[in-house]
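Example (one chain per record):
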Amino acid sequence: MNDIISKLTEKFGAVIDERAVDKCLIIAAEKLPDAIETLGFDVLIDIVGVDYLGMENYKGKRFAVIYCLKNTKDMARLRLKVLVEEGEKIPTISKIYPIADWQEREVWDQFGIVFEGHPNLRRILNHVDFEGHPLRKDYPAQKRQWLSENDKMQDQLENRLETLGYNVIGDEQ
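Predicted structure:
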């Protein structure tokens, strides 16, 4: 694991996150895809967002996006953290890990962090008319919202079925 950490620090300018309990490296957003491909870890366990707004003694960027990675060959685990300010974008890694498509959508939906180049960045947990991003620390917790329409994700379902070799028949009656 030390050789991986050395490679990330030397080649990509990553720094060890001293606040983290386990192995976590902070890396610049623009270097993230290349660093992940260089690592060669075969499993993206999760992508999570963090809002540091109001955190005592914190002076950095408002948000963090944390990538939890695993290499099943040697069972190594590593977290990469990208710090993001309001309005900044992070490049998508959905071309590297297809599961990132949905995980990035979840982070965007809950925190409003935009993943540049994402193929379908739209709501996944909240309804289509939802205003705001509910896991932000400044989101008004008592805010009521009207649900007028549900996104059935029909287009994604049809695309997936066609990919699996099914012939999708339309709604024509």
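Caption: The first helix runs from residue 2 to 12.
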